[in-house]
Amino acid sequence: MEKRMLGQLEVSAMGLGCMGMSEFYGVADEKQTINTIHKALDLGINFFDTADMYGVGGSNETLLGKALRNRRSHAIVSTKFGVVRDSEGNVLGINGHPAYVKSAVDESFRRLGTDYIDLYYQHMPDPTVPIEETVGAMSDLVKKGKVRYLGLSNVGVETLVRANKVHPITALQAEYSLWGREVEQAFPVTRELGIGIVAYSPLGKGFLTGAIQNYEDFLEKDIRRHFTRFQGDNFRRNLDLVSKLEEIAREKQVTASQVALAWVLLQREDIVPIPGTRQEKNLTENIDALSVNLEAKDLIKINDIASQVVGDFEVSSTTLETL
């Protein structure tokens, strides 16, 4: 598989987001998801994304660690800290204190069954702790050999610049798809600093696949029920836009998912989308997006579709606290 550079870190051109394999998008099957991770490795994906708050008690890290047992050396593992949950899964807040950073990484080691993390992110900025203090503690982890590279997720440009002065930031992880383009405001600065982009939810939380046709398709505990993009008239209007994306896909004899991923891949040479899926068939479909050729006329149509999206689905601490 094609490789891309995130700063100095070389990864597969497409990663696998593991968030939905444990929680947030309905009930998951462990055997199925582990098989999907193994299939990803077999097909050349080596970049796997998780976080200590995915799944109650960090169960997503545990799942990924189990899947990578005996194959750890073939994988680039990224995980995150900072969103604190209790034993029942309730979100307690954001913690970026240096002491917490050091304890969180050790807990991630235990769950992942590893003694190093390739790319370690602060999941969300802690408004009570200067970013210099948090990244300073993360930098100490690099010096001790516990972490190879540092990243930040869901931060603004000013915070990113301040953090990079403390220690080189390898990747900015942000929501990015053809209808979630806010992070583009940070592109000039990230290019200047040599920071790559890891795009989560590149398929609009699954909506751009065309598989979701009714609000009721979301199970009761599905996080997507909480975003205005998927509610009421917004849902129906956005569904019409997905139909237009499917028209482009049919002309090219591919799927809407593949068009959406191909669009993301075209935006920068140092951008790596991390679509999530539990099913092998969706995994192979996503990988095939690497060979989709979008022409100038296609991009014009896609940009027009993106400009008409209504509602939001930004992840925030307020949203998390409603789960």
Automatic annotation (TrEMBL):
Cellular component annotations (GO), alphabetically ordered: cytoplasm
Keyword terms, alphabetized: Oxidoreductase
Pfam families: Aldo_ket_red (PF00248)
Domain NADP-dependent oxidoreductase: from-to ranges: 14-305
Name of this protein: Aldo/keto reductase
Gene Ontology molecular function: any one: oxidoreductase activity
PANTHER family: AFLATOXIN B1 ALDEHYDE REDUCTASE, ALDO-KETO REDUCTASE YAKC [NADP(+)]
Gene3D superfamilies: NADP-dependent oxidoreductase domain (3.20.20.100)
InterPro entries found in the cross-reference section: Aldo-Keto_reductase (IPR050791), NAD(P)_OxRdtase_dom_sf (IPR036812), NADP_OxRdtase_dom (IPR023210)
